[in-house]
């Protein structure tokens, strides 16, 4: 049995969600997210991909929306991307409590 480790993050959408179709015909939603470290207030930027139902939930995300993400990091050995890619297994906007 393969164990999948996930990480829960709270962040802010930095690039609005865009729905796309992969070369294999699978639909997904991609967006950017920024996480600010509590320790030194440094911002970390990530590209996020959400497939299936989570991709559907991510479609309306706009820049500046606070979100909760449960993600898995993806290795990119052949990719020259400078920003890590995360695969979302849970995506929800976080609404401030009034």
UniProtKB/TrEMBL annotation:
It comes from the Bacteria. One of its GO terms (molecular function) is DNA binding. This is Single-stranded DNA-binding protein. SUPFAM superfamilies: Nucleic acid-binding proteins (SSF50249). The keyword DNA-binding applies. Keywords: DNA-binding. The keyword DNA-binding applies. InterPro entries: NA-bd_OB-fold (IPR012340).
């Amino acid at each position: 049995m393969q164990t999948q480790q996930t990480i829960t993050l709270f962040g802010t959408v930095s690039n609005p969600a865009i729905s796309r179709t992969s070369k294999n015909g699978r639909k997904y939603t991609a967006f950017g997210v920024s996480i600010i470290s509590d320790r030194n207030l440094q911002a970390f930027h990530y590209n996020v991909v959400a497939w299936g139902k989570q991709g559907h939930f991510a479609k309306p995300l706009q820049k500046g929306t606070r979100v909760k993400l449960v993600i898995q990091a993806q290795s990119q050995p052949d990719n020259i991307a400078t920003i890590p890619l995360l695969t979302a297994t849970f995506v929800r906007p976080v609404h401030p409590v009034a």
